[in-house]
Amino acid sequence: MNIPNFLSLLRIILVPVFVIFLIQAEYDRALITFVVAGLTDALDGTLARLLKCQTVLGAYLDPLADKLLLATSFIMLAVIGLIPAWLAVVVISRDLIILLGIAIFSLMSIAYEIKPAIISKVTTALQVGTIFFALLNKALPQDFGTFWIAVLFWATALFTFGSGVVYILRGIRILNKSAPEETKK
């Protein structure tokens, strides 16, 4: 067990802590927990590269921890009414579609490499920002204004949808390249 993998495990352990704080309406503590989890995400990747201790376990553990934190956050924030339910559905649906594509490639023994598209990096930043500002808006006594929060929700939804389309198109290209020649005619 190396430090980056430990940080990924810590992020997974922080997810139920985050949920408990949300259930107890302790939004300031939930926000702090979310920020700490986010910092472990930034730190584990950086340390893995700097210390040259990237592992196969870490290659699975890091994205699993990220998806677990984001999916849980969107579901919980929608359930307690801090974000619209439709936004959580958009975010979770995109991730499920990506996972379905990976499962199909695995079942068909199709080799693939997952490289995040630029739009996906923007999407992730918007998703993290949505969670952060929804929690901050609830944790602080002053309101940021529903207009700006709504703009953030819509931007997150549009980029999430767009990145989902990009991954679907990439998946179709990979499937077309791997199809036997007689089926391409």
Q: Which band does the percent of strand residues land in?
A: under 5%
Name the shape in a single word.
globular
Percent range of helical residues: over 70%
What is the CATH domain class?
Answer: Mainly Alpha
Mean pLDDT rating: 90
CATH superfamily: CDP-alcohol phosphotransferase transmembrane (TM) domain
Would you tell me the structural class of the helices and strands? mainly alpha
Query: What ranges have pLDDT less than 50 throughout 5 or more consecutive residues?
Result: none
What is the CA-atom radius of gyration, in angstroms? 18 Å
At CATH level 3, the topology is Four Helix Bundle (Hemerythrin (Met), subunit A)
How many independent structural domains? 1
SSE ordering: HHHHHHH
Essential attributes:
mainly alpha, Four Helix Bundle (Hemerythrin (Met), subunit A), 185 residues, 7 helices, 0% strand
What can you see in these coordinates?
Helix content is 82%, strand content 0%. The protein contains 7 helices and no strands. It has a single domain (3-184), classed as CDP-alcohol phosphotransferase transmembrane (TM) domain (Four Helix Bundle (Hemerythrin (Met), subunit A), Up-down Bundle), CATH 1.20.120. The chain is mainly α and 185 residues long.
Helices and strands in order:
Layout: H1 3-23, H2 27-50, H3 56-79, H4 85-107, H5 118-139, H6 146-178, H7 181-184
Helix pairs in contact: 1-2, 1-3, 2-3, 2-5, 3-4, 3-5, 4-6, 5-6
